[in-house]
Amino acid sequence: MVLFIASRFALLLAICHALPLQFLINQRSSECLYEKLEESEAATFSLFVLSGKSLRATVEISGPVADAAVVSGMALQDGIDAFDQGRRPKGSLDVSGEVDFEHLNLGEPEFEDPVLESVPGETAEERKTRRAEERRKILEARHQKEMHARKQKKKVQTEAEPYLRTIQAPLAGWYRFCVKASFNQITAEIDLRKESELGGLDEDGHVMTNQQRIMEEEEKAMDQDTAAIEGIKDKDFQATRTQLKELRKLLNDIQTKQSQERLRLAVHAATNEHSHSRMALNSLMETILFMLVTGYQVYTIRRWFKGAPVLGR
To answer: Quick one: signal sequence residues (predicted)?
Structure first.
């Protein structure tokens, strides 16, 4: 498999750019990623809080904070300052939400019901029928969003997957993706994926991961290879290619499980540490209360034996 082996070396270079970044974010501070998006281009923001006194963070996505033509850091900063001061283009994006990995609070899905406008010339009965159909579609869309939120929550709980938020750029320009440590210092793993770089969306509506893209590229390379190029019989070639595809899928599953296990262990370790701290604090408070009650009892009994007017005497 000459083409397959050659593609491996070409695609290994992309892995270095696919590793999530880890940030140590101080309390009431934030870390942001900036990315230029084309109009209607999708981008997926990934977050996983690895450690902290509380595994909570606030996700803020906004933009465009600067025009797509901006290329210098100074011009980008000027655009950010103007955006933060309220000088924003019409139709700009500004969403935020709290994420809690310890108590599995991934934020509530947002709903924006469209305004049901009247159509000129329609009768009252036609208007009633049309609006009933539009409301039905709105309820179906809301139900799908709720089911998607529940599915993502289950994935985080059972498979230790990161929090994912996919947006579609309403305008071309630079967009800002921030994580804010609102409650305490945290260590967060952050990743950002663009549709134009990774080739499309997966079945859940998120931009494909680099690992998924590599698998697609490898399958294309193997499909382009032929028995004549390899100099072997077609029967042997087909069997070898099938086995290689199965082996690659198995390796991909192992890599995914390893990543999930690493994140799961991180969350469990942090949760156990927090539980231990709370138990130690509760035990200390109970001990102090017990000592105070015991001291008061000793004091009361001594006063009683001395003949002091206590205990009803």
So the answer is: 1-18
Domain range for 266 is: 1-18+215-284
CA distance 271 to 125: 58
Instruction: Specify the pTM.
Output: 0.58
Q: Tell me, yes or no, whether 256 lies in a domain.
A: yes
φ/ψ (deg, to 5) at 2: -65, -45
Residues 69 and 166 in one domain: yes
Dihedral of alpha carbons 193, 198, 200, 205, sign: negative
Q: Among 59, 65, 78, which Cα is nearest to 34's?
A: 65
Judgement on whether residues 54 and 200 belong to the same structural domain of the protein: yes
Question: What is the amino acid identity at position 169?
Answer: A
Token pair for 154: 């289950």
Give the whole-angstrom CA distance, residue 285 versus residue 279: 10
What is the rounded CA–CA span in Å between residue 146 and residue 111?
10
Note whether 265 and 254 are same-domain residues: yes
Q: What distance in Å separates the CA atoms of residue 110 and residue 146, rounded to the nearest whole number? A: 9
Asked if residue 96 lies in contact with residue 54, where contact means CB atoms within 8 angstroms, the answer is no
